[in-house]
Specification:
Length: 134
């Protein structure tokens, strides 16, 4: 069971929704803006890279394979410290001819009234392709 205050989960849910929407519409600066200034995107498991800082994050995200849609399915939040939270999320990402299941792990921090991603790590759980895309 989670050990968070009642106001944290809706703030995290807002970041989850915005992240998926910004990625779906190629709004990379906005997506990077969901991270802290020195935020880290650890994509080592899928893309072999770790990227840090908003400008580098926006550039990195803009060069990834184009997805048709990101569909966050579930997430949960656990408090680590007073202003730090761990978030585990499952995302289904639809590509032309493929569907991927991705695990997201976020370390988030509350800055003022906003939740921001301090670190994001992604890992592929599975991928299904149709015959035409092989």
């Amino acid at each position: 069971m989670s050990n968070i205050s009642n106001d944290v989960r809706p703030k995290v849910a807002d970041v989850v929704a915005r992240y998926a929407d910004y990625c779906d519409h190629a709004e990379w600066e906005k997506a990077a803006g969901l991270f802290t200034d020195d935020g880290v995107f650890d994509a080592q498991a899928i893309f072999g890279q770790i990227v840090q800082g908003r400008p580098a994050l926006a550039e990195f995200m803009s060069t990834r394979p184009a997805a048709v849609a990101h569909h966050p399915t579930t997430f949960y939040v656990d408090a680590v410290k007073d202003d730090e939270y761990h978030v585990r999320m499952k995302m289904l990402v639809l590509f032309h001819g493929a569907l991927s299941s991705i695990d997201y792990q976020w370390t988030m921090t509350q800055i003022g009234d906003e939740m921001q991603i301090r670190r994001q790590e992604i890992a592929m759980v599975g991928r299904v392709t149709n015959k035409a895309s092989r």
